[in-house]
Every structure is written in C-alpha cells, then in structure tokens.
Design goal:
Strand content: 15-25%
Number of strands: 39
Low-confidence stretches: 1-31, 202-208, 735-750
CATH superfamily of the largest domain: Transferase(Phosphotransferase) domain 1
CATH topology of the largest domain: Transferase(Phosphotransferase), domain 1
Strand order of the largest sheet: 3-4-5-6-17-10
Largest sheet: 6 strands, antiparallel
Shape: globular
Structural class: alpha+beta
Distance between the termini: 84 Å
Helix content: 25-40%
CATH architecture of the largest domain: Orthogonal Bundle
Mean pLDDT: 78
Radius of gyration: 34 Å
C-alpha cells in the first residue's frame, strides 16, 4: 500500500500533464500564462512572448523556430518558420521592432564581361505582422556602372533604386555613398515581399578590372561605413558572409487600440498594468507596460512593479524612500522638510513655535437654529449648481478650442497642398471639371476608409471604393505626401488631368486637400485591371481580337497624352496593373502618380527612379531622363504579355525570375517566337497577325529610344493589324461564319 499511493499519484500527475500538453497543441496559444516547457531563448537570442518556440508558446503570427544550421555550435532563430529563412538577432517589445539578418544580392563578371556569379535576394513577410522599417533602414548599391533595384509586392507594383558609376579610381572616396562606387536611397513604407536585383550595362563596364562584383541590399541605416577597398575582388561579400543587419517593424494586431479592446479574447495587452499604443509606422497596435512597471505586457502578470527605492541612481530621493505600486514616495525624517524631497535635499526645521491663534472653543450643547441649516443647504445647492455651470463652460471652451484647432490644421494642410492656388485657378479660368471635396465627404463615402473598401495598394498610394451622396461610385486615392515646394506643380497637374476627356483614360473628378496626405477622386471602373484579366482568370479563353482591341485603344489613349494633351504628358508607369476595364471591357489608362508634364525639350530628368521592374526603359535607367519613348518601351512589354500571356517578370521553374522583354528579344533573334506564344491564339489564321504584333513589340523594345516608334505610330499599326485579323478570319471562315463566331466568343468572354 505504501508504494501503491506514490505510483498512483505519479500516474495521475502524468495523465494531467499529458492532457495539458494535448490541450496546448489543439487550442490556440494562450496569451495569459506561458508553460514552463516553453523555451524563451534560442542560442544567444532572447525570444520573449508574443514570440515563441513550439506549440502553445507563441501568439498567432509570431512563431519562431530554433535550428542548428550547417553544423554550427550555436542554433539560430528563424521568424515565421525555417522555410522563410529570416534569421532573428534581437527582439524589442518596447519599440515593436526586430533586428534580423538580410541577404545581399550580387553579380560578378569575368575579364571578358560575362556574368560568372549571380544572386537576387528575396524577403517574404507576406501573411505576417511585420514590415521592413522605412525609418531605420536604407537601400544601398555598391559597384561600378550598376543600378540596384528594389521592388515590392507579388506583382512588383512599386519600389525604388539608385545607380552607382565609376570613372577613375581617385574619384571614389571611402565613407561616401553619393553615386560614385556606392549609392544609397530611402525606401518606401511597409515593404512585405521584397526582391532586390542589379542591372549592369556592358557598354559601361570598361572598369571591370576594378569592380568585378556589384552588390545591392537593404540594411540598417548607419551600419555601413563604405570603403573603396570593398569594390576589389569579393571583399564586401566575403567580409560580411553576404548578410547585412535589417530592422523590421511589427504590431501585435492589425487594428487600432480602440477596435482591438472590443474583443478581449484576441486583445494582446494582457497585463493589468499594460497600455495599448497605436503604431506610428504600421497599421496596428503594440503594447507597453504602464509607467512605473516593467516586463512583458503581453503576459497576464508580465508587467512587474519597479522597486524605485532599490535603484537610487535612477530614482532620486533625499529622504526616506517608500515603494508604491507603479511609483514611489519620498519623505523627510522628523525635524526636516523640503518642498520636494525627490528633487531637493531635506533641511533641518528652524524650530520656531507656532503662536496661539486664540481659536475659540465652541460651546457645548448649544442647539443650531433651523434657519442656519436651511441657509447651509441653500449654499451647498448653489455651490453645486455653480460648479456644474463652471464645468459645462470649461467643456464648451475646450470643445470650441478643439474645433478651432482642427479648422486651423485643415487650413494649414489646404494651403500646404496648394489649395489656394487651385481655388484661384478654378475661379480665374472658370473650371467646372474639378471639385474640391471635404475630408468629411470622403470619410462618409468610404465608411471612414474602412479596410473592406480598399481596392488596392501601390507605389503612389492606396485606393478605396466610395459612394458619394449623389449616388456615384468613385475610386478615392490617398496619395503620397506633397511638400510645399511641389504643391503648385501638383495643382497644375491635377487641373490638366481633370480636363482630359478621352474614353480610354480614367476621369479625375476632384480632390481633398485639407488633410496631410492629398486625396484624389476618380471615376470608378468596375471590372478590375488588365493584369487580372490576362493573368488571373484561370486560363479562360481570350480571343486575339479582344487582345488587339484592348491594345489598340490603350495605345490611342497614350498617344493622346503624348501628342494631344496640353501640355503633353508622359505617363511614367505604363503596365497591365494601370489599365482598368469598364463594364464593356473597354480599357482605361489610370494611376498618373509617376506622370510628368513635358518641358520644351520633351524630357524630364528624374532624381529618383520610379516605375515597375520588367517595364522600365533601360535608357531611362541609364540616363534617368523620362521621355515619351519610355512609355513606348513599357507598352512594348504589354504587347508581349498579350501574345504570350506571361508576366513581365516570370518564372519557368527556376527560382530566378526572368525578364519577359529580354526573353522575347532573344526568341525573335533566334526565330523561336512560337516557343513563347500563348497556345490559345496560336493557329494558322492568326500567325500572320501575331508576327506583325511581335515585330511591332520588337520595335518598341529597342534599346535606343530614338529608334522606337511614337505611340501614334503604334496605335496606327495596331489598327491595321486589327483590320488584317478580321480579313484573315473572313478568308478562312467566310464573312457570316466569322462574324457570328467572333460575336459568340466575345459574348462568352465578356
């Protein structure tokens, strides 16, 4: 019996532990208490909750795996699972940031100018509550005659880049990253799926003996101290093992504090002594311990009281210190006094006796008259009424002050964004094509910019669907901040765009300028983008005639911008994502965030490269001059996409993305066009027309901009190709058969 009881107790304890482990594995992670089985370190890296290793040890979205890599003695912590390959070095709960290692992209050449080593790095944070910090990092390119390009998003919708050139060795200075041997630039906000690559121009690579390798990467700002010796051989890559430090911003949830607190089961700030803060860098919130407490706000008992008295160097007290919850008190000893013992020393009292004030002692047993009680009651009631009126007046004053403050803030933004200039233009020129909306108008139209109203995000802003009071559906774009020195140009461009009247260009209806970030209001186009139509409809049949019609009408819109608008406009970011389709699948050119009004010489020098990888004009990348021929090159890529149904950057089974433009040019040069064409349009009746389109695209993709056709010429050739396509079908099928067949196919598709 004596041995049976301990055995039974041990079995019961084991069963309870097994049940607890099973519950932890099947139930969502508990944010209240961590199991003692949870490991809070990985090698030398601390892993505080909400991060964690193993089931039941982390908040959803904050999983960390701890693994030994390549036989190393010290394990490494990986964020979001080993497959993402994101190595964590340090986690800050207070700032909502994580330090990690980021991989470097590089390209190396031999003495004959051939690429002998190439690596394009990728960082995928999609699905996680993490983004690359735009304030703590910068993008750097090192090398001679190279352009580093950073792009974000599954479809490479936006990014940045910089160019580094070399002439002679003495011109390269250590410590300087200003474009000679090394360049750097800021990065967009909230990057989550990044690809970094390099472009190298052979005709500028005569300095290969000095710089056989070039590098591009995002790294923590102030980390790099550039040394020109890094350009020799593979010094930089070997010295840093091809990894650099990077800072991520993170949030505990993607809601504001106000919304998160409504659902206590998912609310992350679990400690009773914690506070919630809306993140200043991401959409979401983080938690911190309240003042006077320290620890982990994401655990129920995580925020512990600070014993200020045990740290006199941090918390001063010139008297007797007493710790209190969230604070401490400090008092002088008997016979000493101080105005504030926490900041001023206690001094000995002078001992001056307090004189007798002759306070009369009330007579005992004398009744208080009833009239006195009534008078006292009236005084109390009057005082209460007066206090209520006083408080009411204070609230009214505060409310009026806040309204005036809000009005002044709106006026400041209105002037800062060029509102006065716009108003004067509208009044003097009697323009009735643009309307100025208030902030309240657009908040009402979008249900205060609810996330469910988002139509998409891009490099130039976020677009929301809205419903105005007059019943019109609109697209509202919250653009990037416009600085005061840009406000006049912004207003001019907006007025010009609002007066463009072309059936294949999205109409600008108005704007709101009384907010920090200007908002533009466009007509709403219901059928999405041409990108989704071509690449995202599960291979649904799209006839060649439909593709040609969309291409022709899009070309006509660009030709109108280049030659008929006053002044002419260069779009600057022509791609499938910026061509929308209406109810009848008529194309509409949109997103003029990168557009420029052409100057007299019809070029615009650009200090920051804008555009989308795969569509960027090589000549624009090289000399950074934006021309109408830059749009022609991008449109050439669109033509290739339409006949191949491949993306501008596509993957054919390998991890390394391929540029469609270069693959197409190689196929044309080697007479292998049919190998990359879309099977749906390959047929005897189409090949002559497809060959015409391919030759036109090849002309548009000419490296030299001067040798490319104009958009007007492109539109005319597409019109002729459309006519030829109809003639080919008529010859093969007969006029009546062709007409009915094409009609049916169009109707099925549309």
């Amino acid at each position: 019996m004596g041995s049976t009881l301990p055995l039974f107790a041990f079995q019961l304890l084991l069963l309870m532990q097994l049940q607890a482990t099973t519950a932890a594995a099947s139930a969502p992670p508990s944010p209240n208490v961590l199991s003692p089985l949870c490991n809070e370190t990985c090698g030398d890296t601390s892993i505080p909750y909400p991060f964690g290793i193993g089931d039941g040890c982390f908040r959803e979205g904050f999983e960390v795996t701890c693994e030994v890599v390549n036989g190393s003695a010290t394990p490494r912590a990986f964020l979001g699972g080993r497959e993402r390959n994101i190595t964590v070095q340090n986690i800050s709960l207070l700032q909502g940031q994580a330090h990690m290692l980021n991989y470097v992209s590089w390209v190396c050449f031999n003495s004959t100018g051939d690429v002998v080593d190439l690596n394009a790095s990728n960082l995928d944070l999609s699905g996680l509550l993490f983004r690359v910090s735009s304030t703590r990092n910068k993008f750097t390119t090192m090398g001679c005659n190279v352009i580093g390009i950073l792009l974000d998003g599954d479809d490479y919708t936006f990014g940045t880049g910089c160019a580094s050139f070399c002439s002679e060795e003495p011109s390269i200075e250590s410590g300087s990253c200003r474009g000679t041997g090394c360049c750097e630039t800021t990065i967009p906000k909230q990057l989550d799926n990044i690809t970094v690559g390099l472009a190298h121009f052979v005709n500028l690579s005569s300095y290969k003996t000095y710089s056989p390798c070039a590098y591009a990467f995002i790294a923590e700002q102030d980390w790099l101290s550039f040394d020109k010796s890094d350009l020799r051989n593979r010094n930089f890559g070997d010295k840093h093992n091809h990894v650099v430090p990077l800072v991520l911003d993170w949030v505990a949830g993607d809601q504001t504090c106000e919304k998160a607190k409504r659902n206590l089961s998912s609310y992350a700030c679990r400690s009773i002594n914690s506070k919630c803060f809306d993140s200043t860098s991401l959409h979401g919130y983080i938690c911190n311990c309240s003042t006077g407490f320290q620890g982990n706000p994401y655990l129920q008992d995580g925020c512990k009281d600070i014993d200020e008295c045990s740290s006199p160097n941090l918390y001063t007290c010139h008297g007797t210190c007493s710790n209190t919850a969230g604070n401490y008190s400090c008092s002088c000893t008997k016979g000493h006094s101080s105005k504030d013992p926490k900041s001023e020393p206690c001094v000995r009292d002078q001992g001056i006796p307090v004189p007798d004030q002759g306070i009369p002692v009330p007579a005992q047993g004398i009744p208080v008259p009833a009239q006195g009680i009534l008078t006292s009651t009236k005084i109390v009631i009057g005082s209460c009424v007066g206090l209520v009126l006083f408080i009411t007046c204070i609230f009214c004053i505060i409310f009026a002050f806040q309204r005036r403050k809000l009005r002044r803030e709106k006026d400041k933004f209105f002037q800062q964004n060029g509102g006065l200039i716009l108003y004067e233009e509208i009044r003097s020129k009697q323009i009735d094509t643009v309307k100025i909306y208030t902030k309240e108008d657009l908040e009402k139209a979008t249900n205060k910019f609810d996330k469910s109203r988002e139509l998409g995000r891009g490099g130039h802003g976020t677009v929301y669907k809205g419903n105005l009071d007059d019943g019109r559906e609109v697209a509202i774009k919250r653009s990037k901040v416009v600085t005061e020195d840009q406000s006049e140009e912004f207003v001019r461009e907006m007025i010009i765009l609002s007066q463009i009247n072309h059936k294949n260009i999205v109409r600008l209806l108005g704007c709101c300028l009384e907010v920090e970030i200007p908002m533009l209001v466009y007509e709403f186009i219901p059928n999405g983008t041409l990108f989704n139509f071509i690449h995202g409809n599960d291979g649904k049949l799209i006839p060649l005639t439909t593709r040609l019609r969309i291409a022709r009408e899009s070309a006509e819109a660009l030709a109108y911008l280049h030659s008929s608008a006053s002044p002419p406009i260069v779009h600057g970011d022509v791609k499938l994502l910026n061509i929308l389709l209406d109810h009848n699948y008529v194309p509409k050119i949109s997103d003029f965030g990168a557009s420029r009004m052409m100057t007299v010489d019809k070029t615009q020098f650009i200090t920051m490269i804008q555009g989308t990888l795969g569509y960027l004009d090589p000549e624009y990348l090289l000399v950074r001059k934006l021309t109408t021929k830059s749009d022609v090159y991008s449109f050439g890529v669109i033509l290739v996409e339409l006949i191949t149904r491949k993306k501008a950057i596509y993957y054919d089974g390998s991890r390394q993305g391929k540029g469609l433009a270069w693959s197409f040019i190689e196929a044309m040069t080697d007479s292998r066009l049919e190998e990359i064409l879309d099977d749906q349009i390959m047929g005897r009746e189409n090949m002559d027309v497809i060959q015409e389109i391919a030759e036109l695209a090849n002309e548009c993709l000419n490296i030299k901009g001067d040798e490319r056709p104009t958009m007007r010429e492109v539109a005319e050739k597409l019109h002729m190709s459309t006519h030829h396509a109809a003639e080919e079908c008529e010859a093969l099928l007969g006029e009546s058969s062709m007409t009915s067949t094409m009609y049916r196919r169009e109707q099925i598709l549309m």
